[in-house]
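Notebook, student rotation project (T.W.).
Task set for the rotation: take a protein with a known small-molecule partner, predict the structure of the complex, and write up what can be learned from the model alone. Partner molecule chosen: zinc ion. Sequence and SMILES entered below by T.W., checked by me.
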Amino acid sequence: MQKGRVIQSTGSWYKVDTGSEVIQSRLPGRFRLEGKEVTNPIAVGDWVDLEINKDGSGTIAEIHERSNYITRQATHGRRGEHILVTNLDLAFVVQSYKQPKLKEGFIDRFLVTCEAYEVPAGIIVNKMDMSTPQGAEFIESLRELYEGLGYQFLTTSIHDEDSIDELNEILKDKTSVFIGPSGVGKTSLLNTLDPTYSEKVGEVSSYSNKGKHTTTFAKLIRLNNGGLLADTPGIREFGLYNIEPWELSLYFPEMLEPRQNCKFNTCTHLHEPGCGVIEAFELGEINASRYNSYINILESLN
Ligand SMILES: Nc1nc2c(ncn2[C@@H]2O[C@H](COP(=O)(O)OP(=O)(O)OP(=O)(O)O)[C@@H](O)[C@H]2O)c(=O)[nH]1
Ligand SMILES: [Mg+2]
Ligand SMILES: [Zn+2]
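Predicted structure of the complex:
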């Protein structure tokens, strides 16, 4: 038996890194039956035990318990959840200043999942070389907001060495992941962080301002700073899975205290009388864009 970490998964094959080599491995059918609500029983980041076959390939015999993971709603009309990556020290949502345009709603959905699954989260705003002075001011207001909520907030550009150095320092010796829409520069950042990689990067269509989904499979890569970084395919929307409407406000740190003042313990903080969250919002203690995200997410859960 060999222990290793899943560094890539195509659905039928898994690449498992044992520390000394990378072994192409398969998963016996019985694993698929166990987690019916999960589209992928094994994900990038998982620690597994392998049986080594005569031809040198591996068969996954056991999956170790996960310390945490990030999941999203399955796409393409499939039911259940899709596990993006597991056993993380840090998860970053990556946005670009423009092309494609930054979306606070995407950031907030991602942060809710990280809160729900207890994954330390951060925000990267990339392509800052494209910003105007007013734009930079707006990004600084976002920094104040999110840092105030306890999240790391980084502004980067692949053309700004200092910003890459800062990122490099933060990712050192950790297992992290970049998640975000297509075209924001997740793979470009990885290639800049560690120039021994030249993973494929794509163009952003000038017509739609969207990326073209250049990265197709999640991949865990060892950086020369000792960290492991998972680059993931771009996602259009971060669909939340398995979160009940009543618990949503538990995943907005700024609502934790105000919600204790709600008159009803089933309060959804939308229009109920005696709602502590609405009161805090009206006093300006809860940011309007965050409250707006809360409402949008709540509606999407119903
Ligand atoms: N101006 C500028 N362009 C950037 C920056 N980072 C990335 N780009 C460009 O953005 C485009 C998309 O970059 P990718 O790295 O492929 O984006 P991605 O997030 O990996 O996209 P997917 O793999 O499709 O999810 C490329 O043309 C990059 O050169 C940056 O900091 N500044
Ligand atoms: Mg990519
Ligand atoms: Zn309330």
